[in-house]
Amino acid sequence: MSTASVPLPNWITYGLMPFLNLVVAFLISGVVVWFIGESPLEAVKLLLQGALGNGEGIGFTLYYATNFIFTGLSVAVAYHAGLFNIGSEGQAYVGGLGAALASLALDHYVPWYVTMPFAVIGAAIFGAAWALIPAWLQAKRGSHIVITTIMFNFIGAAMMVYLLVHVLIVPGKMAPETRVFLEGGQLPKLDWLIAMFGGKIGAAPFNVSFLIALFMCVVVWALIWRTKFGYEIRTLGASPTAAIYAGIPYVKTVILTMLISGGLAGMMALNPVLGASARLQVEFVGGAGFVGIAVSLMGRSHPIGIVLAAILFGVLYQGGDALSFDMPKITRDMIVVIQGLVVLFAGALEYMFRPAIVRVWQRFGKA
Amino acid sequence: MENLDIISILGSTIRLSIPLIFTALAGLFTERAGVFDIGLEGKMLFSAFAAAVAAFMTGSPWIGLLAGIAVSVLISLIHGFASITNRGNQIVSGVAINFLASGLTAVLGQAWFSQGGRTPPLSPSARFTEIIFPYANELRDTGFVGRFYANVISGHNVLTYIAFLAVPASWWVLYRTRFGLRLRAVGENPGAVDTAGISVTWLRYRATICAGILCGCSGTYLAIAQSAGFVKDMSAGKGFIALAALIFAKWRPVPVMLACLLFGFLDAFANFMQGKNVPGIGEVPVQIFQALPYVLTCVLLAGFIGVARPPKAGGVPYVKER
After folding, report:
1. Measured between CB atoms, which of B93, B291, B322 is closest to A159?
2. Interatomic CA distance for residues A365 and A287, integer angstroms
3. Does ipTM come in above 0.90?
């Protein structure tokens, strides 16, 4: 009998298997570190110390995690509908334009809590707009969404560089970036939250976007599992033909899902643009859209899983930074290696251990 | 425009198209066999690194080429293991390969050579250098045809000519051999191929190996023919432009070459136009040329220039019925 059809309990499918995959990914990362000639254990110690050892480290870790929660949610929502949105990167980039425009327009006149809703809406609308054409092409023309969203990442990058170099740049300045937003256009830091736990935030740009991200997790959870539209999304993802047969409008569902996905990606821009650097810069997304793919895969497209995976990647990012200071042989690129291994083992090879686990389960577990 | 130097633009069009042609042909093999290959970019980068390291160690460009191909085939096999044997998501696997390539090459490059992820510059004897055709130098100053011969036809490295030979060779393999027929069939209807008693798995593996070989050539070209060493992230999105070219050519070999030449021309033209003023418009932003290949491909996908129909079984892992 084929092992693929044997049912396994949830704790194995959602707990043990992802855990084993992660362990393999980290073991191989350790081998790479060892191969370079450093001690993997020492590296892990430095990494954890850098990421979680003090208030500032935790602040940075959660700052990175905020980015990944947004992009992870973005990928997850599309994934529930069976759509692979690989364009969160571009949607976040363009979303930054919406957020920045809101700040540039309002920061002279109103305090931050008035600007914030406009920036959130602006980022979401611009991000969603960048997902609209790929969504339409998928729904109406049947072009593969993976291909079109990749293309739109590049088109978006070219467009944003053009806008920053030729339009939004401060006259007389060399750097392709907008002016620095005044306080009314920035999101305040969450220093009190870190202080509550007795830490000091230091230079970490951990800000209100984190709370917005957590709020969006609840919204996404409610949308996917507690609304009629969410049910339609999941049905479409489980079986497009069954969904169409059941009268679920294909075109509408695909386009709306992608708009939500793009909007979530766009909102990621709040964190770096309004929260950290207080201006729109070239390439501020920095690969967070692609990390979102890893986060969503690891988190099994569930908001709770996404938050946990995002924090894990936050630890890797911040810890990796700290590590590259202490072990110059291990550059920041090591994070990208770990990321790749996690995507490979937790994503593409997620069922690699299933046949073996099934055999063990059948022999020992059932009794 | 007073000095629109068509010859030099065409010359650099050829140079910029070669990696695209190799990579797009690689994608042609995998995608025609029903395996999506987002990891072309990563394979290119891996092979560029391997070629540069091997050429630096041995001083021989041919060993560099072999190393580039070997590593690229190895990565292809990982992609095959994930997406054919384990029936994992082919796109996820490709994304993972791209991450790994970008990270590992930089980490290893830094650890081995401590030059910020670069490999040490290669001497000319460790590279593929230009081949000057007979009489090219004599004909250089004899009018348009002479200059065309000297600058566009002659004066490229051996991989350039291999790339142009790879196009008819790929066509022949895909359309005139039994292997090619089966490969195309497995991308359209793997069930039928399986029923005929041919292993879907083995066929798809062979397709990914072909892709690995071609990607190996393309990475080698980048690192030890076009440049004199590996630079961090030197593939710079070329794998994705090649993917766009593959779609733009509707998954057919000769149009693939033409699409790559077109996208290479756009790149060359953009370089040429940098800092030049067009009367009435002013300087044309270089970003327009950068975005144009992708815009064109999306317009094509929207169905405004014919219909691009991908292989039917693309992206779907094959599950043998029991």
Report:
1. B291
2. 42
3. no
Long-range contact pairs involving B252-259 (C-beta distance under 8 Å, separation at least 24)? B252/B28, B253/B25, B253/B28, B253/B167, B253/B168, B253/B170, B253/B171, B253/B174, B254/B167, B254/B171, B256/B21, B256/B24, B256/B25, B256/B28, B256/B167, B257/B21, B257/B164, B257/B167, B259/B24
- H or E stretch at B187: helix B178-188
DSSP class per residue in B42-97: HHHHHHHHHHHHHHHHHS-HHHHHHHHHHHHHHHHHHHHIIIIIS---HHHHHHHH
The distance of A175 to chain B (nearest Cα, Å) reads 17
Query: What is the rounded CA–CA span in Å between residue B284 and residue A154?
Result: 18
**Three-class SS of residue A281?**
strand
In angstroms, the Cα distances linking A311 to A72, A77, A317 are: 11, 19, 10
Is there a domain that residue B319 lies in?
no
Per-position DSSP letters for A170-239, written without gaps between them: PTT--SSB-PPP-GGGSPPB-HHHHHHTT---TT---BTHHHHHHHHHHHHHHHHHHSHHHHHHHHHHH-
A281: its two tokens: 């810069």
Q: How many domains does chain B have?
A: 1
CA distance B298 to B217: 28
| Assigned domain for B289 exists | yes
As a whole number of angstroms, the distance between CA B25 and CA B30 comes to: 9
The minimum CA-CA distance between A32 and chain B, rounded to whole Å, is: 9
Give B107→chain A minimum CA distance, Å: 6
Q: What whole-number distance in Å separates Cα of residue A263 and Cα of residue A267?
A: 6
Domain that holds residue B207: 6-125+156-301
Listed residue (B129, B160, B168) closest to B11, CA to CA: B160
Tell me whether residues B107 and A151 touch, CB distance under 8 A. no
Q: Which of residues 272-311 of A touch B (CB under 8 A)?
A: 290, 293, 297
CATH number of the domain bearing residue B103? 1.10.3470.10
With an 8 Å Cβ cutoff, are A290 and B88 in contact?
no
Q: Within a domain: residue B209?
A: yes
The answer to whether residue B130 is domain-embedded is: no
What is the end-to-end Cα distance of chain B in Å, rounded? Answer: 68
**Which residue in chain B is spatially nearest to A163 when comparing CA positions?**
B287
Please name each of the domains of chain A with its CATH number. Answer: 57-309 (1.10.3470)
- Chain A residues with beta carbon closer than 8 angstroms to that of B100: 336-337, 340-341, 344
**How confident is the prediction along chain A (367 residues), in pLDDT tens digits per residue?**
466 677 788 888 778 888 888 899 999 999 999 998 888 899 899 999 999 988 899 999 999 999 999 999 999 999 999 999 999 999 999 999 999 999 999 999 999 999 999 999 999 999 999 999 999 998 988 778 888 999 899 999 999 999 999 889 888 888 889 999 998 889 998 888 888 887 888 888 999 999 999 999 999 999 999 999 999 999 999 999 999 999 999 999 999 999 999 999 999 999 999 999 999 999 999 889 988 988 998 888 999 999 999 999 999 999 988 888 888 888 888 888 988 998 899 888 888 888 888 888 888 876 5
CB < 8 Å from B in window 218-237 of A: none
